[in-house]
Amino acid sequence: xxxxxxxxxxxxxxxxxxxxxxxxxxxxxxxxxxxxxxxxxxxxxxxxxxxxxxxxxxxxxxxxxxxxxxxxxxxxxxxxxxxxxxxxxxxxxxxxxxxxxxxxxxxxxxxxxxxxxxxxxxxxxxxxxxxxxxxxxxxxxxxxxxxxxxxxxxxxxxxxxxxxxxxxxxxxxxxxxxxxxxxxxxxxxxxxxxxxxxxxxxxxxxxxxxxxxxxxxxxxxx
Length: 222
Hints:
Elements: E1 3-9, H1 16-29, E2 33-38, H2 54-65, E3 71-73, H3 76-80, H4 86-97, E4 103-109, H5 110-113, H6 122-128, E5 130-135, H7 147-150, E6 157-161, H8 169-177, H9 188-197, H10 205-221
């Protein structure tokens, strides 16, 4: 029997904060695998708020997990072409990627888990997979206590403390739009895709290369 984590999200773009959560949760709970599931059409966001298309976001997640044998990506939400709720996604991923006897976990941020009552059929979701609430150091666990009386499966919510990294997809997109570097805020493969495709208003790859070379030349002259 293996423990398997499902890490869903818009990943617009995926960044090092996501990778740290996946790694530390996997270590804390003994996951054999973590399956990233980028949302195709996220149900809780307007279409205009998602800045990169599903294929671009899938490719970025795929680039981010490359080289980690425990990490993989599933296209289930990208391919379906409509909004999917987690309670729909989890059984499909289990069917597509699971083995008999696997123990399943759904990974999300503690702030998102605190709003679990607004998710579709939260108790049924908790029956399909235990919910990992990734917390930051000093997070007040009492923020989750209001769920106890409302959910039959509250005991299936597992807080896991992860290293706090103050990185957000919104902040990354804002920096790119201003022409600022996001190198090391995202995995290198993600950085390359962003600039190669000009995502989020980023400089195209050749423009970025010339900008970096110009910066290096200035430093040498200095």
